[in-house]
Specification:
Layout lengths: L11 E3 L6 E3 L3 E7 L2 E5 L8 E5 L2 H9 L2 H4 L17 E2 L5
Parallel strand pairs: 4-6
Antiparallel strand pairs: 1-2, 3-4, 3-5
Bound molecules: zinc ion (ZN).
Zinc ion binds next to loops.
């Protein structure tokens, strides 16, 4: 709640699953990392990203609709029932 006082509303992203909008905090970001669809937990990896609500139903919808491919993410994307296998990135590597 620090930098939102510039008179605007918080920037919104569209979920590629359900197509509804949400704020950056409500959505998870997915990017291609070395050709693999990856959940960008810190929302700061370079490259084109697609946003999906942090809800397994939205993720499944996005996978079924091939929404990541359509968003221009060139990656190996699991089938909808393999959503659990999407790797996560951005957590500290120690
Ligand atoms: Zn959604």
């Amino acid at each position: 709640m620090t930098d939102r006082s510039a008179g605007g509303t918080p920037p919104e992203r569209s979920c590629v699953g359900c197509r509804r909008k949400g704020t950056r905090d409500e959505l998870a970001r997915y990017v291609a990392v070395a050709g693999v669809l990856t959940r960008d937990d810190r929302k700061r990896l370079p490259g084109r990203g697609a946003w999906v609500h942090d809800d397994p139903r939205c993720l499944e919808l996005a996978l079924k609709r091939r929404a990541f491919e359509r968003a221009g993410i060139i990656a190996r994307v699991p089938r909808a029932n393999d959503a659990m296998r999407i790797p996560r990135a951005g957590l500290p590597l120690t």
